[in-house]
Each structure stands twice: as C-alpha cells, then as structure tokens.
Write a structure and sequence with these properties.
- With 336 residues, this protein is α/β, with parallel strands linked by helices.
- It folds into 2 domains: 3-59, no CATH class; 63-335, Aldolase class I (TIM Barrel, Alpha-Beta Barrel), CATH 3.20.20.
- 41% of the residues lie in helices and 14% in strands.
- It is built from 12 helices and 10 strands.
- The protein has helices at residues 3-7, 15-26, 33-39, 44-62, 104-116, 133-148, 162-170, 196-209, 225-238, 264-277, 289-293, 321-330; strands at residues 65-75, 121-126, 152-156, 175-177, 212-214, 217-219, 242-247, 282-285, 307-309, 334-335.
- Strands 1, 2, 3, 4, 5, 6, 7, 8, 9 and 10 form a 10-stranded parallel sheet that branches.
- Helix 2 (15-26) runs parallel beside helix 4 (44-62), helix 4 (44-62) packs across helix 10 and helix 5 (104-116) packs parallel to helix 6.
- The longest helix is centred in the first third of the chain and has 19 residues, at 44-62.
Length: 336
C-alpha cells in the first residue's frame, strides 16, 4: 500500500508508507496531520518498523548522544492549583511532604551529586502557581549555585513575568520549563484554576526573552490520539527546544488516581510519532517511565528519544542513575 492509499482509508499503515515518511523527514520535510494520523494506526510488525524509523531520524538529527537532566523540588506543598494528576494539587488528598524553599547551598549540593551522575542540566522546581519577587531573590541564588556546580541551570516556577525571567537569566539560567500538559481541547479536564491561554502567555514570555524553552506534557490522562497530535503540532509551531514526555503515574488521592497506566507499546508509539513530528528537537522521557514501560523501558531510545530525566521525580521515585547510565552504554549510546 502506498502512503496515498494509507491516508485514504482506515486500514493500518504498512512498512513501505512508514519508510516513505521517514525519508521525507530525514530529507528535511515535515509531516502533516494526515500523515501523522496514519502513523498511529501502525500495528504488529509495522509498529516496530515505526520504532526503527523514529530511531533512524533520531540518529540523523541527534547522533548517538543522550541529553541527561535532573530535577530538585525546591519547595513543596500548599499549591493553589487543581491539576488533576498532581499530588500537590489543592484538591489532592494524597500525603505529600511540605517544606519551604531550600537553601542555595542545599541546591548546590544536589546539583553536584547530579553532575557525578552525568547530568548535563539541573532544574529547580517550586510547587505553586508562581513565585513572589521575594522568593525570586532566593531562587536567583539557587540558579547561580547550579552554575557554580558546572551544570546548565533550568527552572520550573509556574507563571513568570519578563522581569523575573530576566533576573534569572542574568545569573545564568539557560532554560525555562513550562509544560502545556495536553491539547487545548482536553486541558479543562486537567485543570480549571488556570487556562491553556495562561500557559501560552508564559511560553510567549520565555520565547520573547530568548531563553531556551522546555515544554511537553503528560500522557495517559484520558486524552485521545487527536489530542496528542494537537499537542505535538502546537509544540512544533511554538518551536520549543526540549519536549518532556511524561506518562501518568496514578496517585491515590488525586483526581486521576484510579486511571490505568498506558499500554507499554502505546507509550512507545507516542515517543516514535513525536520524533517524526519533531525530528530535530530533544524528546526527553521523564515521569512514569518505569511504571508504564516496565521491561520495555530499554526501548525508549530505539523509539526515538534522545533525552532522559534521571534520578527521582517530584513526588514519585525514579530509577537509580547507575542503571540508566548502564542502559545507555549497553545500547552503544553516550552522554556528554
């Protein structure tokens, strides 16, 4: 079946059509929504051909280097937002630690440890809608400390204005992380205390400042494939630099605590489709990786990923860094 035929019917895409799209992307072209929609029909052997195509595109645009990052929760508890997936949400009954802003010295100690685990980037994360100007003074000291630890500083502070972002960039902030989480259409199912437009305004602030932007979302929240494609195509339009892919870890006490985890092959298909839509961007696998993929965790790079969050997450445990480094080496890949 040709690609044209695959797009004109509802039958699963076949290997020849996948290879045609792979070559189009490697030659510098972009796939359109219809072509992306055809990819999600891949089944059986064709699904593994999709993974192989995504891997070829990763190798072409990103080489054999895996970009590693780590995060630190610099403040937790007391969030005013009602995000349905989050243990720190205002509507969550999940037990979580609560603590004020950590000290810059504590952040630097954590950054140095992350560097020994081969992280290239280190991100400070504060729970909540935004940070006050008074708290920002402490956070600028954290960013400077990360820079002193010889890592690339990143921050996740919620909504931010241009003046706050400029202050952080002045002390070395390299990247700002602000997930859109899902599509605009599905977003009201995720959060009602802020809007998708609010998200886009902060992204606009980051882009206008010339700061590197990390933005992606969470999969397995009940969204459709149409939502997933909407998000990928928007991220392409926004020209983000890094796309974190998280898989929902259902947490008891949250609104989404009863949801099942995604099928591992579906999760890998998401990675592969995102690689074809966003061929030159960092596709970074983050939260929910082990809980969702299990024994198929080792397939993430072969499905097109070139970035990884190592260590623990915000309210859930990750994998031992040594195990991830061993996996990268076993696959013939490397890290900076």
């Amino acid at each position: 079946m040709t690609l044209r035929a695959a797009l004109s019917c509802h039958r699963p895409i076949v290997s020849a059509a996948i290879l045609e799209l792979r070559d189009k992307v490697i030659e510098g072209g972009s796939i359109n929504r219809d072509e992306a929609s055809s990819l999600i029909t891949a089944e059986g052997a064709a699904l593994f051909d999709l993974f192989a195509a995504a891997n070829s595109i990763r190798e072409h645009f990103k080489g054999d280097t895996i970009d590693l990052c780590s995060i630190l929760s610099a403040r937790a508890g007391g969030c005013s937002e009602d995000c349905a997936f989050c243990a720190q949400s205002s509507i969550s009954a999940a037990p979580v630690d609560r603590y004020p802003l950590k000290t810059p010295s504590a952040v630097k100690t954590a950054a140095i440890k992350a560097r020994t685990n081969k992280s290239k980037r280190f991100c400070v994360v504060t729970g909540g809608r935004s940070v006050s100007d008074r708290d920002l003074e402490k956070i600028t000291a954290m960013v400077a400390a990360i820079k002193e630890a010889r890592l690339s500083p990143c921050a996740t502070l919620g909504f931010i204005n241009a003046e706050q972002l400029a202050a952080l960039m002045d002390v070395g902030l390299n990247r700002y992380h602000h997930n859109i989480e899902t599509s605009a259409g599905f977003f009201p199912n995720v959060c009602t205390t802020h809007s998708f437009a609010d998200k886009l305004r902060t992204i606009g602030t980051v882009k206008a400042a010339g700061c590197s932007l990390c933005s992606g979302g969470i999969f397995g929240m009940g969204e459709t494939w149409a939502d997933r494609l909407d998000m990928a195509l928007l991220l392409r339009d926004l020209e983000v630099d890094s796309v974190p892919i998280n898989f929902l870890t259902p947490i008891d006490g949250t609104k989404m605590g009863g949801r099942p985890t995604l099928d591992p092959l579906e999760a890998l298909k998401i990675i592969a489709v995102y690689r074809l839509i966003l061929p030159g961007k960092e596709i970074r696998i983050c939260g929910g990786r082990l809980q969702t993929l299990g024994q198929l965790n080792s397939f993430i790079f072969m499905a097109g990923a070139d970035g990884l969050l190592i260590g623990n997450y915000l309210t859930t445990q990750g994998r031992a860094a040594a195990d991830d480094l061993q996996l990268i080496a076993a696959l013939g890949l490397r890290y900076d």
